[in-house]
Amino acid sequence: MAAAFPRLARACPVDALVLPSRSATRLTACTPAASCRRYATQGGLGGASKSSSTRRQITVANDDGRVRWGDLTAGEKVARSTQQSFNFLVVIAGILATGAVSYVIYSEVLSPEGTTNQYHRALRKIKEDPKCVELLGDPKKIVARGEQFHSRMARAWSITSKKEKDRAGNDHLYVRFYVDGPLNHGTVNLHMVQKPGESEAQYQSLTLDIPGHKRIVLEDADAWAPLKKKSKFFGVRWW
């Protein structure tokens, strides 16, 4: 038995029985992973910096304002300035167009002295005049219309009108439309004059022409002019 131990010792040296330490095993196992992880981290940082440095070029068409002014190149700053100037001009043009449309709507429709209101007043005068009612028929059935067109809607709204200003600064309004009654149909001509400083326009003439009948004069300022001159005595108007 004792003789067997030396033989075992010879066959199996003591150095061969020494096991590797736990720290060495851990170092050997972790070193490749740590190096891979370090490489991946450095590669990720490189990709992020590359993606942040590359962006599409800013032009007038694709600029959305997300890129700061300080990060723009000289050409991109020119493109952004051009785009902003164009947008400003579009806004100004829209404001001017809105103001023009609002002025037309007020002067033609909403203003008391506008074309629409003068047209309705003239039509009301015709319906209230005994001579006009006698030739046209029942005033409740008298309707007004514009010029002859294929569309009924266009015919209803196409009232012919014209505005002028003379040398004295007087505003002249000319309106022409047509009336249809149960008995006859006719043409209405209206002429209004508004002098400077006056808030209301005055009738210059209002006539109704019915085929086969004498012209009906509802308003005629020229007919009253001689009477106005005769009504003055020593420069004083007596009535």
Automatic annotation (TrEMBL):
Domain of life: Eukaryota
Subcellular location: Mitochondrion inner membrane
Database matches in InterPro entries: Tim21, Tim21_IMS_sf
Segments traversing the membrane: 86-106
Keyword Transport recorded: yes
Annotated Gene3D superfamilies: Mitochondrial import inner membrane translocase subunit Tim21
GO biological process: protein import into mitochondrial matrix
Topological category with respect to the lipid bilayer: Single-pass membrane protein
Keywords for the protein's UniProt record, in alphabetical order: Membrane, Mitochondrion, Mitochondrion inner membrane, Protein transport, Transit peptide, Translocation, Transmembrane, Transmembrane helix, Transport
GO annotation, cellular component aspect: TIM23 mitochondrial import inner membrane translocase complex
A Pfam family hit: TIM21
The protein's assembly and partners: Component of the TIM23 complex.
Functional summary from the UniProt entry: Essential component of the TIM23 complex, a complex that mediates the translocation of transit peptide-containing proteins across the mitochondrial inner membrane. Required to keep the TOM and the TIM23 complexes in close contact. At some point, it is released from the TOM23 complex to allow protein translocation into the mitochondrial matrix.
Family: Belongs to the TIM21 family.
Cited PANTHER family: MITOCHONDRIAL IMPORT INNER MEMBRANE TRANSLOCASE SUBUNIT TIM21 (PTHR13032:SF6)
UniProt-recorded name of the protein: Mitochondrial import inner membrane translocase subunit Tim21
